[in-house]
Design brief:
This protein is of the alpha+beta class. It is 47% helix and 23% strand. A five-stranded mixed sheet has the order 1-4-5-2-3. It is globular, with a radius of gyration of 13 Å.
Length: 108
C-alpha cells in the first residue's frame, strides 16, 4: 500500500456529514472550499493534502473547486444545507448533499 493509498483511506474515514450550522463558523473564517457535486470529494481532499498544485489549480480554474462565497452561505442558510465534508487543514472541503436524496451514501 502506497502512502497515497494510506492517506486516501484515512481521509475517507474522516469524511462526515455536516449541517450548515456546523459549517458556518468555518465559512466565517474563510476556509470552506466547495467541491462540485458528482466529483470525488476524497480525491479532491487527497490532492489538496498532497499539495498537488497542478491538479488543484486546474480544478480551481474549471470550477471543480471554489472558495465558498457569501451567496453560497445565504443559500445554504436558507436551505439548512447538509454536506459531506472533510478537513484538510486549514481547509474544510464540502460537497452539498441533495435534500431530495434519501439514504445518500458516504463517498468512496
Amino acid at each position: 500500500m502506497t502512502p497515497s493509498d494510506i492517506l486516501r483511506a484515512k481521509l475517507n474515514l474522516e469524511t462526515a456529514r455536516l449541517a450548515w450550522p456546523e459549517l458556518e463558523r468555518h465559512f466565517a473564517r474563510g476556509v470552506v472550499v466547495r467541491v462540485k457535486p458528482g466529483f470525488d470529494l476524497v480525491e479532491a481532499a487527497l490532492q489538496v493534502a498532497e499539495n498537488n498544485a497542478a491538479a488543484v489549480q486546474d480544478w480551481l480554474a474549471d470550477g471543480t473547486l471554489a472558495r465558498a462565497e457569501p451567496d453560497d452561505a445565504r443559500r445554504w442558510h436558507a436551505a439548512q444545507q447538509v454536506f459531506w465534508g472533510v478537513v484538510v487543514a486549514p481547509f474544510v472541503l464540502v460537497q452539498e448533499i441533495a435534500s431530495d436524496t434519501p439514504g445518500e451514501k458516504k463517498p468512496a
